[in-house]
Write a structure and sequence with these properties.
elongated; 14 strands; ATP hydrolysis activity; four-stranded antiparallel sheet; alpha/beta; binds adenosine-5'-diphosphate; ABC_transporter-like_ATP-bd; Alpha-Beta Plaits; six-stranded mixed sheet; 2 domains; Rossmann fold; binds magnesium ion; ATP binding; ATP-binding cassette domain-containing protein
């Protein structure tokens, strides 16, 4: 696979009244061609700073970046045509229609006007394209923004928090659009602090925390590397689950009861479960590791639950509290 985007050792320091803050602290990222790549991190972790630096809007203190194999910002003038980006939410003139808006942008960018109709089709705005932008939902405005970034047929599309502020329907539309663009051969990089969506949209991810990459790879790889440590336990029908749970709890297990099974949240040594229960002549019929989801990994690595509209930065206490302790070793 070829890297469309490579970042290594990126550092950006801001000096404020409270002293020096490392917005990016030696950040690395690789995005392979044809992927929908999720750039995940809590608010304030450095996503927008990274994307703005990549586009030459911010000067880094250190680090190397390349887009489509060419070093940037040095070669930005040549690669700019190949990159479509929405980093700040674009403002459109509400009295213009989508068609007029895109036609003006096409003219300004030397793009053939026929392309306007292709991008309207791509983002699913063709049948509303003769209505004024001020009558559009936020989701439609976002899609118009994506359409404007697609006019020049970029190889790489960069979107900063495209799901921000969208309702579930809008997010679903955005997700379908990302998949369509990827199927059409485009590489898409999208940042988000909202996890659930990313797991469904992306092929691969980079997770950033406090200006550093904490993990990356295909969604499957990242999940495999971070087993949840929880196991689902089922007993023979009719056996007293409460009693079994008591035995395990007495040994330090974190047990959550369900109707027909229970979950041990901190089972780093599942054999201990069968052993403790068998000693009391309680026999296990099923013992299944519970797969981690991306949200668990995110929480574990960044020490923050992503909460929309809140600015939480990672702190060490949260990191250690998120680490799952074992028992019965
Ligand atoms: N212009 C600026 N001056 C000072 N600090 C900034 C500036 N821009 C961003 N920061 C700080 O850099 C860190 C990363 O911000 P940002 O890249 O916007 O994070 P994200 O996009 O992941 O929410 C934050 O701590 C933020 O407060
Ligand atoms: Mg941001």
């Amino acid at each position: 696979m070829t890297a469309v985007l490579e970042i290594s050792g990126l550092r950006k320091t801001y000096r404020g009244r409270k002293g020096v803050r490392n917005a990016l602290d030696g950040f690395d990222m690789v995005v392979e061609a044809g992927q929908v790549h999720g750039f995940l991190g809590p608010n304030g972790s450095g996503k927008t700073t990274t994307l703005r630096t990549l586009l030459g809007l911010i000067k880094p203190n250190e680090g190397r970046m390349s887009i489509l194999g060419r070093e940037v910002p040095k070669h930005l003038p040549e690669v700019a045509r190949e990159v479509g980006a929405i980093v700040e939410s674009p403002q459109f003139f509400g009295n213009f229609t989508a068609e007029t808006t895109l036609s003006l942008l096409a003219d300004a960018g030397g793009v053939n006007r026929n392309r306007v109709y292709s991008v309207l089709d791509l983002v699913g705005l063709r049948d509303r394209s003769k209505e004024r932008v001020k009558t559009y939902s936020l989701g439609m405005k976002q899609r118009l923004a994506v359409a404007s970034a697609l006019l020049k047929e970029p190889k790489l599309l960069i979107l900063d928090e495209p799901a921000n502020g969208l309702d579930p329907g809008g997010i679903r539309e955005m997700r379908t659009l990302m998949r369509d663009l990827s199927a059409a051969g485009m590489t898409v990089l999208l940042s988000s602090h909202i996890l659930g969506e990313i797991q469904l949209i992306c092929d691969s991810v980079t997770i950033i925390s406090a200006g550093k990459r904490v993990t990356s790879g295909s969604v499957a790889e990242v999940l495999a590397r971070h087993k949840s440590g929880a196991v689902k336990v089922r007993l023979e029908p009719g056996v007293d689950m409460m009693g079994a749970a008591q035995i395990l709890r007495a040994a330090g297990a974190a047990v959550t009861l369900d109707t027909d099974h229970f979950t041990v949240g901190n089972a780093s040594n599942p054999a201990q479960i069968t052993k403790l229960l068998a000693q009391q002549e309680i026999y296990v019929t099923e013992l299944t590791p519970v797969a981690a989801d991306l949200e668990d990994v995110f929480l574990e690595l960044t020490g923050t639950a992503p909460v929309e509209g809140q600015n939480r930065q990672v702190d060490e206490t949260a990191m250690s509290a998120a680490g799952k302790g074992g028992w019965g070793q």
